[in-house]
Amino acid sequence: MVEMANLTGSFVSPSADATVSPQLFAPAGLVASILDGFTIWKGLLTFLVAAVIYDQFKYHYLKGAIVGPMYKIPFMGPFLQSVNPKFTEYKAKWDSGELSCVSVFHKFVVIASTRDMSRKIFNSPTYVKPCVVDAAHKLLGKTNWVFLDGKAHVDYRKGLNGLFTRQALAMYLPRAEEVFNSYNQRFLEKSAATNYTPTPWMSEFRELMCALSCRTFVGYYITDEGVQKIADDYYLITAALELVNFPIILPYTKTWYGKKAADMVLMEFTKCAAKSKARMAAGGEISCIMDAWVKAQLDSAAYREKIEKGIQVDSSEKPSQVLREFSDYEIAQTIFTFLFASQDATSAASTWLFQLMADRPEILDKVREENLNIRNGDRTLPATMDMLDNMPYTRAVVKETLRYRPPVIMVPYLVKKDFPISETVTVSKGSMIIPSVWPACHDEEAYPNADSFDPDRWITGTAEQQTKNWLVFGTGPHYCLGQTYAQLSLMSMIGKASMVMDWEHTPTPESEDIKVFATIFPQDDCLLTFRPRA
Ligand code: HEM
Predict the structure, then answer these.
(1) Residue with CA nearest ligand 1 atom 31
(2) Among 84, 260, 461, 482, which residue has the fewest nearby CB atoms (within 10 Å)?
(3) Is the ipTM of this complex over 0.90?
């Protein structure tokens, strides 16, 4: 022992020797009393306490006059709640005030409940930009166009608008018809195979919508197996889209599986882009959205070439948007954003639509009658754009479904500079700010008896005039690019189904309860049975 003590004293720097150092730097008074018993554990504890206090102070500073809990669960906040969000919890937030807040890990989140606050956020591109959810950057790629902001976003979007005009949509309708025919048949077979036992149908609708998107977006450049694989794996992508995720992708977590599935879809779509380019260059007809975009790029290239060569071009030949050429991968990335934006929302809308129709046979009868009349009694006729234009009741049913159960209840935005949203509240840069859709759609002033499903409010009532409350597809520079397409698809789907099938919903105590899975679904996943119509 003596030898040890000597060793320490003679060969090691005195300041590194725990028994020597306090004497060398002998402090006095309060500091002395603190350092006297200083150990690594006390150091860590002090750091932790300081961090907790800082976290609480920061939360209070950001919260200001916004309604929210007095204290934050240290660091993580209500993270566990946000992993499995409940509709009732969102509703409680909306009811708590026009602006309420929550802080999860490093994210400070402000939720706007009223129509006017929500509109203000949607329409303030100087202060906010969409942030989708944290995981979306990882799944879609940071360079994705949906993350562009300001002029860059407006310019990019202009080049896509032409893909969603009425004229363009009419060209994709045959793809939709084929998908509806095939899935109606599958629904009938599945119900027959289970001997008409009521079965949860939500995942069937998700699959149907995925197939519809794939066929409309990339036509037959993808095989049936490819579509099936995307449909099977897509829920992994949805599952990765929690409002707040763990900041890095850890193996075997939801974000990891989601990223793998997203990469697979991107790879499939990249192959489709190469095929579409070859076919369109050979003068093929436009059969899907990808073709339409590739054709617009080819037309732009031809126009540019003529201009470069000094050839006179009549102004009527100038494309409405002169596009640059996009790589196969860029095309795939953009088409993937359409799938990403549409899949959950259209799946939710179709699930509710079938449930609501089954529960209200008198409304389904009217849809059926309108569809039969427009087809002059021939149930097999495919829907055309003209027919869809002349189905006011079916349109009203779709709009009322979207109002009554708006698929996207909130849209996350990121505050990019301190945002003075009201006289008393400035939301700090870096916060997440979320305009809400649900409360505007259930506003009694705009939609009397808002909690009842009443398609007639769109025909004889005043619903059509409540444009300020119609936030189902957002508003402002990022409003939904696919809104007309989505509504026409839903009209076409329910019309066709009403021609060939009868279906029955088995209500459970949870049928009207709302499950949040990126968008909203009936809590019991909608128990249905389908039978052929004689
Ligand atoms: C019922 C179905 C749908 C609903 C309820 C819905 C709703 C929304 C909402 C709320 C937004 C955010 C708008 C904003 O921030 O102001 C949005 C954005 C978007 N939606 Fe949809 N959507 C639907 C279907 C579709 C479909 C079928 C497509 C594509 C074919 C699509 C493409 C997009 C795109 C690309 C954006 C981002 C636009 C941008 O940032 O400029 N959506 N949608």
Answers:
(1) 482
(2) 84
(3) yes
DSSP category for residue 437: S
DSSP string covering 132-187: --HHHHHHH-TT-GGG--HHHHHHHHHHHHGGGSHHHHHHHHHHHHHHHHHHHHHH
In this structure, what DSSP letter does residue 428 have? P
Instruction: Give me the domain span that covers residue 184.
Output: 137-532
Phi first, then psi: what are they for 207, rounded to 5°? Answer: -70, -45
Let me know if residue 371 belongs to a domain: yes
pLDDT given for residue 27 in this prediction: 47
pLDDT at 32: 61
| Arithmetic mean of pLDDT, 154-164 | 95
Sheet containing strand 501-505, edge to edge, reads 199-200, 527-532, 501-505
Tens digit of each residue's pLDDT (9 = 90 or more) over 450-460: 999 999 999 99
pLDDT (mean) for 348-369: 98
- Collapsing DSSP to helix, strand or coil, 505 comes out as strand
> What separation in angstroms does the CA of 359 have from each of 64, 100, 115, 243, 528?
46, 36, 30, 32, 11
Ligand 1 atom nearest residue 485's Cα: 27
Taking the CA of residue 475 as reference, the ligand 1 atom at the shortest distance is: 16
pLDDT at residue 141, rounded to an integer: 80
Task: Tell me if 79 is assigned to some domain.
Answer: no
Would the pLDDT of 75 be above 90? no
Distance separating alpha carbons of residues 534 and 130, to the nearest angstrom: 49
Does residue 94 sit within a domain?
no
What CATH number is attached to the domain comprising 172? Answer: 1.10.630.10
* Ligand 1 first shell, C-beta below 6 A: 122, 130, 146, 157, 337-338, 341-342, 345-346, 349, 407-408, 411, 472-476, 478-482, 485-486
**Tally of CB atoms within 10 A around 247:** 11
Task: Flag whether 272 is marked binding.
Answer: no
What is the count of structural domains for the chain? 1
In the block, tokens 């909130």 appear at 410
Model pLDDT, residue 53: 87
CA of 463 to the centre of ligand 1 (A): 21
Cα of 480 vs centre of ligand 1, distance in Å, is 3
| Weakest mean pLDDT among 79-93, 109-123, 429-443, 500-514 | 79-93
Residue at 44 is within a domain: no
